[in-house]
Design brief:
C-type_lectin-like/link_sf; alpha+beta; eight-stranded mixed β-sheet
């Protein structure tokens, strides 16, 4: 009888261990960002080292299972600025594309991925200004403390892509 009790105890310990390992494995796989992406909270970010137009940037981000970055609050903006400073891929004069646009209605800025109005902003003073009536795409000005500006969508800037950690798609950058 003692043998049977010990056998049940070992079997239960083994089941608990397997369950724990399964949970740990699941958590580590489902919460990780793909190689080349930087993690912040529940999101993954990557700056693609290819200057493109805004429309090309949308397609490049899509190719890595991401969207041109949308920024929801000041903490996220601060994180992105720090990430870009560490990455230093952009040098000192090239700008970074974000996913905002006012193409549908001048002055009504939306995120291109879901057409939601942009609530948090970090505009440079006197921006957006739609200079030349041709600035409808959102970027970060690297040489002006990473403040936001409206740009002509045909300019070439570096795409900043963002995706959720748990979307289940795997991409490798680099």
């Amino acid at each position: 009888m003692a043998y049977l009790g010990r056998l049940i105890s070992v079997a239960m310990d083994h089941t608990i261990l397997l369950t724990s390992l399964t949970v740990l494995f699941f958590v580590s796989v489902s919460c990780a960002c793909p190689s080349g992406f930087t993690t912040h909270e529940n999101n993954c970010y990557v700056l693609l080292p290819v200057p493109t137009t805004w429309a090309e940037a949308l397609r490049l981000c899509d190719a890595v299972k991401a969207k041109l970055a949308w920024i929801e609050n000041g903490a996220e903006n601060t994180f992105i600025v720090q990430m870009l400073k560490k990455t230093n891929t952009t040098g000192h004069s090239t700008e970074v594309w974000l996913g905002g646009t006012d193409m549908l209605l001048e002055g009504m800025w939306m995120w291109a991925d879901d057409m939601e109005l942009i609530e948090y902003t970090n505009w440079f003073p006197n921006e957006p200004n739609n200079a030349g009536n041709n600035q409808h795409c959102l970027g970060m000005m690297v040489n002006h403390d990473f403040k936001w500006d409206d740009y002509s969508c045909s300019l070439t800037n570096y795409p900043l892509c963002k995706r959720m950690q748990d979307d289940g798609e795997q991409s490798v950058i680099g």
